[in-house]
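It is worth pausing here to work through a concrete case rather than discussing structure prediction in the abstract. The textbook approach is simple: state the sequence, then state the predicted structure, then interpret. We follow exactly that order.
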Amino acid sequence: MQAIESIDLVKVYEDGGKALQGVTISVSKGEFFTLIGPNGAGKTTFIRIASTQLLPSAGECRILGYDVVKEASEICKHIAVVPQDVATYGSYTPWDYAYYFSRLKGESAEEAKKGAKKALLMVNMWDLRKRRCATISGGERKRALIASALAQDADVFLLDEITSGLDAIAKRNVLSSLRDLITEGKTIISTTHNMEEAEIASDCLAIINNGKIAAEGSPEEIKRSIKKRYRVVLSGRSPEFLDDNNDSVKFGDKRIVYVHNEDEAYQIMREALKKGLQASVSQITLEDAFIKLVGEANEKSN
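Step two, the predicted structure:
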């Protein structure tokens, strides 16, 4: 039995907008699974359906074997959710969020206290636990909401853009804490626009575009699906030695050139250095693969 499974999941809104068009994914227990995609691709819609907040138009979605439509109340006993955009109550403290959400899930006062302390320590909010949310920063309020989910003894965590608004240090700390949950056998499905975050944190990911899955696999498998595996970043004046056959993208006075192998990359680098340009060689990133896969899919649909 999978922790999360959807089969041909469809969501069509009343205005005719098609948010999901036959999404099929499978998330194993103890896996960190990330959905990445452009704005409006269907990421949040999938999280809302999986967390029983939104009814699907067609298809199936199950959490730990329970149907999101027929067995929603049972699913709610096993999940913790952090929505994408949710405001905190100014009079609540981080402790209130971590403690009372656990109590609402039916935990005893003693269990809730232990869970709240553990969660607040995980997100470095213990020293701020008694501060009202109206008096702390936006990033700290976000961490209070994350603590409210981590404090619950859930089996599955559904996290929508969980690191948005966090600084680099807080982001790394939260991701590290989430990876610790994976070692405890918990399952996480998250959404993000941050490709580096997805590449570092995820065991598996899916690229969703226009409500359809464009690719699925580990970060390395996604990158291996792209034929051109290396890139050269050139800085300086326009590199005249490049011809129209080169696969490249211009960024102001910089240009990224994509090539099949390391030899081709270093050949271009040597030519660039002879011309007095700055150049660096690296393997393609997940962001490179994402842009190519989504771009190709959009070209085919036009």
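Step three, interpretation. The chain is about 35% helix and 25% strand. The first strand starts at residue 4 and ends at 12.
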